[in-house]
Write a structure and sequence with these properties.
Blueprint (H helix, E strand, L loop, with lengths): L3 H12 L23 H11 L5 H5 L4 H10 L2 H13 L2 H9 L6 H16 L3 H5 L4 H12 L25
């Protein structure tokens, strides 16, 4: 099973090359969604933020634990569609499907993979696909994550500036 440090490194990989100190969401009204306040509305705001043009850099300035919650919370409908596609295709077809996504969709794919890692960690995938598909799906995950640059297990320099490079390998 995938450990917490692995998940943390994966989240850090999404943050690679992004500006870490940005003056966003410091006022309480930034955390309000539909008139509600509290942890859930904060997660909703973070999820919405990632759809904005400069959202990734702004998102990376937020506490990592809240970031992870937001990533897991977002795009539930699209993730369900991706899971259905995975259940309908063999491993190599799914790997090809992920590799051939347009560049603008790469960040979405990273989000889906992160959620998928969490599901594998909690052994929930067998509830969706049946236990006989679990090994094949884990193999597909290994194939697709080989294309992602994982941040080294050293402290990141949070003063780095986003240079526009994608935080994953092609």
């Amino acid at each position: 099973m995938i450990s917490n440090p692995d998940i943390e490194r994966f989240v850090a990989s999404i943050s690679l090359n992004s500006a870490a100190v940005l003056d966003v969401m410091r006022d309480t009204e930034d955390w309000v969604v539909d008139g509600e306040e509290g942890p859930q509305s904060k997660i909703n705001v973070l999820a919405q933020l990632l759809h904005e043009p400069d959202g990734l850099a702004r998102f990376n300035a937020i506490d990592p634990a809240l970031r992870l919650q937001a990533i897991l919370h977002m795009n539930a409908h699209r993730f369900t569609i991706l899971l259905k596609a995975m259940s309908d295709l063999d491993t190599s077809s799914v790997a090809t499907l992920l590799e051939n996504q347009p560049a603008s969709n790469n960040l979405y794919i990273l989000r889906y993979l992160l959620r998928f890692i969490m599901m594998l960690r909690h052994q929930m995938v067998d509830d969706i696909f049946g236990i006989e598909r679990l090994a094949e799906i884990k193999n597909m995950l290994d194939i697709t994550t080989q294309k992602i640059t994982i941040v080294p297990q050293t402290e990141r320099d949070d003063s780095s500036v986003d240079n526009g490079d994608e935080p994953w390998s092609n």
